[in-house]
């Protein structure tokens, strides 16, 4: 199979998931072929943004490994070098690619700073809407596969280089002197042990940590961003400590992702502080629940944690059993033997407990609560709630609403 046929097949495979395009250049950076038809990124665009100089400098060192090239506003392209008898013959660019979900917003802000005509701005925005966002680990795997496609040589993702076309300023020197972190390590270990044990005194250890340090010492000129960074560090410590204390890694990592996203959404340090308190309480309460009944196996504990984290979904015994690797019969029998109730009874009770919290602590409509907890309809929600609590959702809200 010829190289152009391999590349065509490679692009077809990629385009099953992402809409990407290719540019084929010779080693003097003359365009030979492309499947890109938009005016944007055409002509001497790659020369203009500095990719030509980056690639030629890369080749001048004798390095012919693939690159991930980053332009302004976090736009990315994969660059692959085809060699013949160890001499570069063609340069292929594949893209464009967004590096993160917020890149669209960054580009919009960038466009606002230019005086563009309405038609040009509309054309640029339409183009951006079709640019895919690809996780960096997938991007590096594509670069490895492109290199194999062009040269029939195996490399690893660690061989892929990232280069930025922007001119970087020389960083300010950072001093490592001082003893401002004295005592933090021991206190941090105490905090992690308390979290792993589900010890409610973790709040005291946390306060002591705050008195010893104000967090990561990196002044980025944005107080809220720095505060969020510290919250993310605390989240990571907390999740790992609770996993070591018996929390299912799957639940621990899912919660980590959930709270990391919520931290990014915080608009103030007050919001971030409240969220961190909620986060810690959530993690610790889950560990405490695990330790209440040590006779319950890890298999059933993990199933219970999964149920609690997916109350907004329809949860089937089949899915739970599949996750454990056991048959539905064995899983259901083991669940009832250890907890004294059936799987469906446990799911229903957990959903009703969540409904009680929502009825008492929010103004959400009963229909909304029913929908959010994946009940088939409002009537069925009423019936289940009445059966478990002895009163209707409306009556419960009247008695308990704050």
Notable characteristics:
elongated; Arc Repressor Mutant, subunit A
Structure in a nutshell:
The chain is α+β, with helices and mostly antiparallel strands. It has helices at residues 3-14, 45-48, 51-60, 103-112, 118-129, 136-151, 184-197, 202-212, 223-244, 249-265, 269-292, 298-309, 317-324, 328-339, 343-361, 366-372, 378-389, 393-400, and strands at residues 21-26, 31-34, 67-70, 75-84, 87-98, 161-164. A 6-stranded mixed sheet has the order 2-1-5-4-3-6, sandwiched between helices.
Set down the secondary structure blueprint.
Elements: H1 3-14, E1 21-26, E2 31-34, H2 45-48, H3 51-60, E3 67-70, E4 75-84, E5 87-98, H4 103-112, H5 118-129, H6 136-151, E6 161-164, H7 184-197, H8 202-212, H9 223-244, H10 249-265, H11 269-292, H12 298-309, H13 317-324, H14 328-339, H15 343-361, H16 366-372, H17 378-389, H18 393-400
Parallel strand pairs: 3-6
Antiparallel strand pairs: 1-2, 1-5, 3-4, 4-5
Overall description:
Helices cover 57% and strands 10% of the residues. It is α+β, with helices and mostly antiparallel strands. It has 3 domains: 162 residues; 95 residues, no CATH class; 92 residues, Arc Repressor Mutant, subunit A. The protein has a 6-stranded mixed beta sheet, with helices on both faces. Helix 7 crosses helix 9. The longest helix has 24 residues.
